[in-house]
Specification:
Elements lengths: L7 H31 L5 H12 L5 H8 L3 H13 L3 E5 L7 E5 L1 H22 L4 H20 L34 H12 L4
Antiparallel strand pairs: 1-2
Amino acid sequence: MTLTASDAGLIEGFLGSTHIFALALTHVMEETLLLDVAAGQLTPAQMKVLKLTAQAQAPTVGDVATFLGVSDAAASKAVDRLVRRNFLQRVEAQADRRSSHLAVTPAGRCILAAFETVRRRRLAEVFDQFPPEELHRTAQLLDQLAASIVSTSGKPGEICLQCGVYFKERCLLHGAASQNCQYRPRKIRQAARLSQEGQPE
């Protein structure tokens, strides 16, 4: 089907529905789950920082700032709060002792695991009412639309949608060639590295 100017209402309606879905997921479900699991100790933004630190390769405060879209000073304050609550720790870089990277503490990993367990159970309750093939088709459509939107930009190769944070096994935009994506899960990066090391020179 080719959309015409008269279909503008259909497009706006679709975008409105996706926006409402995203808000329901992040601002209703995840905030409610955080309240249940963390008893008010974490905000959604702080949980995102914990997830980023668990996923990324030795992230820095600058990486957190980029991820959240805030200044380095604001990111540093967010990190400091998590450090004070013993969810994160700053680890001195071996190559340059003036710099440090972030790591999740055992307490941080514990609360991440608890949150993910409750989140998966709650999402299963919501999504079980829909056929798997329907969910698969919808996910494919959203991925295709996202890639198409980014491709219309001036420099699509420089755009990052942080796919790895949301447990994509490959970069939505650049495929498995995105070896340097810091958001790709460690096990996938390790598999890619082992695969490369096993290839003949």
